[in-house]
Amino acid sequence: MLNLINFIVWNPSISFGPFRWYSLCWLLGLALAYFTVRRLYREQHIKDEYFDPLFFYCFVGILVGARLGHCIFYQPDYFLTSGKGFVEMLLPIHFMADGGWKFTGYEGLASHGGTLGLMIALWLYVKRTKLSIWTVLDNIAIATGVTACFIRLGNLMNSEIIGKVTDVPWAFIFERVDSAPRHPGQLYEAIAYAILFAIMWPLHKRMTNRIGTGWFFGFCLTYIFTFRFFIEYTKEVQEAFETSLPLDMGQILSIPFIIIGICCMFRKPKKE
Fold first, then answer.
1. Helix 249-265 to helix 111-129 angle, to the nearest 10 degrees?
2. Distance of CA 72 to the CA centre of its chain
3. Any bridge partners for residue 234, and if so which?
4. Tens digit of pLDDT for each residue in 134-166?
5. Looking at the DSSP assignment, which residues form a beta bridge with residue 94?
6. CB 3.0-4.6 Å disulfide test: which of 46, 186, 188, 216 passes with 155?
7. Of 272, 271, 269, 224, which Cα lies nearest the Cα of 250?
8. Predicted TM-score (pTM) above 0.70
């Protein structure tokens, strides 16, 4: 028998009207990354005119990529098989059984899709600004940990992406879901990403010669998705079809990013 008295009962009651915790944390994480990258640009004497459009590219790339990633990788049977599902994939609404609709926000964002969307957006950004793609990727990577941390804190506040049942003393009882003590997988990831930022920020000051080589970008991908791969073992699967797979979808999607990260860390920059 599990002694529920020892576990953390989780059901935060603070609300901000129609705004969900996930949305607020997502925006706060992006804002902190914005100021971090702006400081990096100024340290590297990159003109403000090149920085100004960066936030727009990042915001749109992450949002579109994360949304499409969730719909395509996790719920293609719903979003890709009907006209209403396709509309719900693109717009933050849900069609009701009575023929009406309601605003829901984007309920379902995938970090793997967000990462891919960000990479595509940054490629378009450097096509416009003519900056080095590796310099831009490294700068974004240095700030990524703080954004990723707040995104997972948003999941924690909303009791989303819950972990498997466990008897570890730090288990959470997510009252919005059930009364079982579970791994706080969102908190595990948030801590891992906060540590990443704590590593990257002082490291970039000691390794300024590596900015622009792709090393920081590669380290960021390798670190995040290696942690993600192993933390997935503590999470409940998000969709039923994953139970028949040898690895869950989060792990399968993490492997290519880990490989890309390792390749970027050890690539030999071309001489200019």
1. 40
2. 16
3. none
4. 999 999 999 999 999 999 998 898 888 889 999
5. 102
6. 186
7. 224
8. yes
